[in-house]
């Protein structure tokens, strides 16, 4: 293959190239720093890399849809998912600035791993080949296994890392085996070619259906679908909270983006079969996630089971197999990134560093002592509940609308009922903040990055809710 062929459409993977370059730069800067004071430059260098990747994404946004070596694509859906992932990575870096020095002095490795995890996530969002998809999955998974256990002196963090690694490796084997069976059924690893061959009834059904089932298991683990969700509360609770915030938004966006592309490009002809499978998984995921969250006293475990339920809501949009559903899912992921990262930022202010968590009673009386912090948490809880006119309301509205217009009205009704159930445990936090007295004095921890991330997430949650049309036009669907 000549050089011209290798460099053709290289701009498609420009954001990933930028992230890789800055990851190497962070490692080099960490090696060359003379004292601890210079380590403060590392998060700034990481933020610069994320902003540069955002600029690269914006630069290719209005260019014609292009593919790099048939393995990655720069269409509207991929660029929209990349944007959400980069936003989550930037917010997590801001949260890490004052948090990381308290738990681990090895900052260079941490920020390099954040950039590499982001690279894997953005690559997964744009992958159009099963091999590239698996490589991207492993890149960000390996980075997150390490980041989850970065507080090595804390047994809970080490346990979270081990559980995530063992179950993640098990799920990866399901994914790669499913991909191998899909390759055996169609004779190619390129998603669009698989779709064309299966649509013309040239595939091998004896390999196709087991392959689809195994892929559902692999994706189900990454997006925390029931019954593949058991790792989620332990890992969310045990990981350093900035890592939890990054993982909750970034991993979900990357995995759902790849999920959408596999379903829409490789398996559209089988929508009747996998649509019912997704519908059952969506009902189980929403219901189990919400009912289990009702019983949680830990804020991080509550948000973990909330994340499970939210995966069920997003899955509702994918069931019809329509372009509108993919747009609705991407819009929901954008809103979820802001409101969930914001909620976990508030948890950071309340948690005891050695516990890596905060019980709900630590939020009691927060409105009297820190009214702006209580206001921010109220915005996030109301938005997660789906209360208008905040971003979460429109996220759920578009998801359920896509289901109704796709002929799945009963599924939308189940989603609305589950959303009503979830309001109880979200509003319970608000009741504690405004109507309960503090059991012990709590002095919230603050630093510049944390305050900035709280302000950005709260404002975004409100603005997206007030002007949803701006964002629906911004995040175009497949092929846009």
Characterize the structure shown.
Helix content is 76%, strand content 1%. The chain has 480 residues and is mainly alpha-helical. The chain has one domain (7-474). A hairpin with a 3-residue loop joins strand 1 and strand 2 (72-73). Helix 5 (107-126) packs antiparallel against helix 6, helix 8 (191-199) packs parallel to helix 11 and helix 14 (323-350) packs antiparallel against helix 19 (448-466). The radius of gyration is 21 Å and the shape is globular. The chain starts with a helix and ends in a 6-residue tail after the last helix. The relative contact order is 0.10.
- Helix- and strand-based class? mainly alpha
Strand content: under 5%
Write down the overall geometry: globular
Mean pLDDT: 86
What's the tally of helices?
A: 20
**What is the share of helical residues?**
over 70%
Instruction: Note the gap between the termini.
Output: 30 Å
Adjacency order of strands in the biggest sheet: 1-2
Low-pLDDT runs: none
Overall structural domain count = 1
Précis, in short:
This protein is mainly α and 480 residues long. It has helices at residues 3-7, 14-32, 41-61, 76-103, 107-126, 130-148, 155-186, 191-199, 205-222, 231-238, 241-266, 271-293, 299-318, 323-350, 366-369, 371-385, 391-405, 409-435, 448-466, 468-474, and strands at 67-68, 72-73.
